[in-house]
Amino acid sequence: MQIEGYISLAIYFLAMLGIGLFAYRQSTSDISGYILGGRQVSPQVTALSAGASDMSGWMLMGLPGAMYLTGFDAMYIAIGLLAGALANYLLVAPKLRVYTEMADDSLTVPEFFAKRFGDASATVRMVSAAIIVMFFTLYTSAGLVAGGKLFESAFSVQYQWGLIITLGVVVSYTLLGGFLAVSMTDFVQGCIMFVALILVPVVAFTEFDSLSQMNAAAGESVPGLFESWEAISIVGLLSSLAWGLGYFGQPHIIVRFMAIRSVKAVSTARNIGMSWMLVTIIGALGTGFVGIAYANQFGLQVDDPETIFILFSQLLFHPLISGFLMAAILAAIMSTISSQLLVSASSLTEDIYRVVSNKEVDEKKTVTIGRFGVAGVAVVALLLAMDSSNTILSLVSNAWAGFGAAFGPLVLFSLYKKNLTHKAALAGIISGAVTVLVWIYAPVLADGQTLSSVIYEIVPGFIVSSVTLWLVSAWDRSPSQDVQATFTQATEELANQQA
């Protein structure tokens, strides 16, 4: 990359650090400001922040790579994600915004679970926090892998140094500004991703004389490409669409709903967020498809399909624009890593440290502990990401399934089932997480294959967790009248705010 590209990246890095410094001066004097931005985040920032933190590096690298490798099969993942995101806005966002505030102003998802069920022992809270830290460490490592590959492919920087540079910038502004910094940087990063995912496939397409020429080149490169979407098996289709189930249990996404300034703002955020998501997913799939045709037509050597966006950025654009497009990939990567680090640190601080210490902690000291938590999770994720053979999509899919199965059913049951008990909640979390882990790692099939080679692990995990929640609630005695009364009050308050 030429000097102009490095100038673009330098401007981007300085902008992110500047936002972190601004947020540090605005919102980090107390733990509520550090973790949730004082519940005053605008719908515009909520929408793009949720989208950017959701999509991560896999949007610009993993999904185009999947399209390049598997053809139109990847389209079903996109359809599942769009349906899941919409359902999340409709079913979870309004209720969670009201209920978390009424449940003694819960600041984290585990804290909400504990207060929702009146769990004085804090068992549900501690187990939830442990699962968040475990899966987010894995999830964060996926983002770092994307950063390492970017620097290695685009800048000829050693993979490990790429990891360190990526992590260094993200940790800096996350440590400084907390939730407000993460949300504001995500908004900017979401805008950058939006422009990039329109620009790259459109410019790449203009290299062909016509649509028919591009389609012919793609079909020539991958025989049966245009029939691939019809040839998918029922199990394969279910696995792809089931990605949408994961949305209900992603702490770094649903925490945005807890922080939005009002219930009425949710509909505005939904409209913006879904429009953004539709355009960017089409752009990501388009990048992968045009990449198939371009590689065949012009003899482009693609050693790693997950770098097709990077290759286009380097080949087709002026160095100054190329630097902007590299910043778009970093934006996607950093937006998710920062959200995951903050949620992990929040769980370590609010749901583990406070519970274990069992004493009142000064607000400023708590924020400081949260910052140490950010650094600690970052270091572990860095060590996990050192293996450059990891693929972004596989790491993301494992963590996505873990959260989706452990928390997804519980979030829905918590908001819609009045007599849900803390024993059922605990059983649902554990059964969902264990099912996913067994599905991923237990070599029970022939040739040491795991069950995840048959069907995506979120499907059995979500089902097992849901059935467990229902059965244990039916068997257990009803929760206290106070717990049921809070549920009723939250439902009534939601109706009042929506009126």
Automatic annotation (TrEMBL):
<feature type="transmembrane region" description="Helical">
    <location>
        <begin position="307"/>
        <end position="333"/>
    </location>
</feature>
<keyword id="KW-0812">Transmembrane</keyword>
<keyword id="KW-1133">Transmembrane helix</keyword>
<dbReference type="InterPro" id="IPR018212">
    <property type="entry name" value="Na/solute_symporter_CS"/>
</dbReference>
<keyword id="KW-0472">Membrane</keyword>
<dbReference type="Pfam" id="PF00474">
    <property type="entry name" value="SSF"/>
</dbReference>
<feature type="transmembrane region" description="Helical">
    <location>
        <begin position="369"/>
        <end position="386"/>
    </location>
</feature>
<dbReference type="InterPro" id="IPR011851">
    <property type="entry name" value="Na/Pro_symporter"/>
</dbReference>
<feature type="transmembrane region" description="Helical">
    <location>
        <begin position="392"/>
        <end position="412"/>
    </location>
</feature>
<keyword id="KW-1003">Cell membrane</keyword>
<comment type="function">
    <text>Catalyzes the sodium-dependent uptake of extracellular L-proline.</text>
</comment>
<comment type="similarity">
    <text>Belongs to the sodium:solute symporter (SSF) (TC 2.A.21) family.</text>
</comment>
<feature type="transmembrane region" description="Helical">
    <location>
        <begin position="231"/>
        <end position="255"/>
    </location>
</feature>
<feature type="transmembrane region" description="Helical">
    <location>
        <begin position="424"/>
        <end position="442"/>
    </location>
</feature>
<keyword id="KW-0029">Amino-acid transport</keyword>
<protein>
    <recommendedName>
        <fullName>Sodium/proline symporter</fullName>
    </recommendedName>
</protein>
<feature type="transmembrane region" description="Helical">
    <location>
        <begin position="454"/>
        <end position="472"/>
    </location>
</feature>
<feature type="transmembrane region" description="Helical">
    <location>
        <begin position="276"/>
        <end position="295"/>
    </location>
</feature>
<dbReference type="InterPro" id="IPR050277">
    <property type="entry name" value="Sodium:Solute_Symporter"/>
</dbReference>
<dbReference type="InterPro" id="IPR038377">
    <property type="entry name" value="Na/Glc_symporter_sf"/>
</dbReference>
<keyword id="KW-0915">Sodium</keyword>
<keyword id="KW-0769">Symport</keyword>
<keyword id="KW-0406">Ion transport</keyword>
<keyword id="KW-0997">Cell inner membrane</keyword>
<feature type="transmembrane region" description="Helical">
    <location>
        <begin position="6"/>
        <end position="24"/>
    </location>
</feature>
<feature type="transmembrane region" description="Helical">
    <location>
        <begin position="159"/>
        <end position="180"/>
    </location>
</feature>
<feature type="transmembrane region" description="Helical">
    <location>
        <begin position="74"/>
        <end position="92"/>
    </location>
</feature>
<feature type="transmembrane region" description="Helical">
    <location>
        <begin position="187"/>
        <end position="205"/>
    </location>
</feature>
<feature type="transmembrane region" description="Helical">
    <location>
        <begin position="126"/>
        <end position="147"/>
    </location>
</feature>
<dbReference type="InterPro" id="IPR001734">
    <property type="entry name" value="Na/solute_symporter"/>
</dbReference>
<keyword id="KW-0739">Sodium transport</keyword>
<keyword id="KW-0813">Transport</keyword>
